[in-house]
Amino acid sequence: MTMNKKEKGEIAGLRGELRSSVGELRGELQSSVGELRGELRSSVGELRGELRSSVEELRIHMGVLVEGLRSEVRVVAEQYGSVVKKLEEHDRRFDKIDLRFDRIDLEFIGMKTGLFDTSHRVDDHETRIRKLELAK
């Protein structure tokens, strides 16, 4: 199939139009890509700003939480100190009570020893009385 000059001219014209259209599309595409890059940079910048703001808010919030926790730890430490003092006071009281019981134990042992001696003396007296009664 051979082409005549007219067809060749039309094809050449179409090629020119096609190249022109491709060039225009390429230009529009590059322009759109440039706009998208600009929008993307702007969005990334906004996101970074929001992220920085959120991070700062988080730091402030964490600071408040940490300070609250420190305050609660102080309260617990103070209460612990108070409990320790009370326990030490009770220990001293128990030591005094132990001393009293030790004294009472010693007195009881002394009374028991005295009672034992008295019981032996009574036994001795009863033995003598029986001997005297038998001797009569």
Describe the structure.
By secondary structure, this protein is mostly helical. Helix content is 96%, strand content 0%. The chain has one helix spanning 5-135. The protein starts with a helix and ends with a helix.
Q: How is the main sheet built?
A: none
Give helix and strand order, one letter per element, not per position: H
- Catalogue the unreliable spans: none
Total of DSSP H or I helical runs spanning 4+ residues: 1
**Total strand count, please?**
0
Rg over CA atoms, rounded to whole Å, is 56 Å
Mean pLDDT across residues: 93
Strand residue percentage: under 5%
Give the overall silhouette. rod-shaped
Termini distance? 179 Å
What's the SSE blueprint?
Elements: H1 5-135
Short précis:
With 136 residues, the chain is mostly helical.
Tags for this model:
136 residues
